[in-house]
Amino acid sequence: MPTLTMNSQQLTVPQDTTLLTAAKQLGIDVPTLCWKEGLEHVTSCMLCMVENRQTNTLLPACSTLVEDGMQIETESDAVVESRRMALELLLGDHLGDCEGPCRRACAAGMDIPAMLRQITQGNWHAAAHIVKRHIALPATLGRVCPAPCEKVCRRGAQDASVGICMLKRFVADIDLASPTPYQPDIAEPSGYPVAIVGGGPAGLAAAYELMQSGTACTLFEKQSTLGGALQSADLKDMLPPAVLDTEIQQITKLGLQVNTGIVIGANISLEELKQQFDAVILACGEVSSGFAEQLG
After folding, report:
1. Among 34, 68, 166, 186, which residue has the fewest nearby CB atoms (within 10 Å)?
2. What is the gyration radius of the CA atoms in the chain, in angstroms?
3. Measured distance CA(198)–CA(177) in Å, rounded
4. Of 155, 198, 173, whose CA–CA distance to 285 is shortest?
5. Measured in whole angstroms, how far is the alpha carbon of residue 11 from the centre of its chain?
6. Considering only CA atoms, which of 107, 230, 238, 126 is closest in space to residue 171?
7. What is the pLDDT of residues 21-43, one digit of tens each?
């Protein structure tokens, strides 16, 4: 069985023992990131580097087998510098919070950590742009959202959750009040028109996403105004109509064709929509029995 010296401690181990296992037996802590006991090593993070004093070479402890007579150092200057460089490379393009629980809980998948970083730097418009990558009506949603993101915010374990929903509303309001509110880039026309039935939040969000990809959208709404349930009188104290109307205008400015006062099944049939458009999105909420029959 091979014998090695590690940090001036001598140890004899069975054949095929790794330096990392030997270090653990000696009570020496060697940092790891990609290693997990029981799984084949991948030697990708390079945080477990140690130095072989005999050869003045650095070795990954998780995969290097002990050889008889080895003299290993785990905290030499070369080792510390190597681990620091490996960590800097790992973190160079990774902010460490890309999978924050707040983002995972957000139904829209909004990049909440990125928004918060921009806000802390006072970059209100940059923060609003981040919000509007994923949310079509942020100023509206900032007033009515049940904020599932705040329920899982890690800060809540310390004192109180970050007011994510209010911050989203704050930057969205600033953006709307600016001379040139944010408008996303629109791709070249795809040539595949889509009909959207229903001008509520689902229909508007669908149009917002599709138009960015270059898809021409035509929206059909039976009411005289868009907004659907968001136009409810019960929400007027919480959601001023002017805010909702302004955000809807921002979506229609992207090129959305709007037809109000149109009842599917009366003014136009679902079959006609299928013939005129490459796809039909049904975002109409509760439907009548007659319309349900058209759907089959």
Report:
1. 68
2. 29
3. 28
4. 198
5. 48
6. 126
7. 999 999 999 998 888 777 776 66
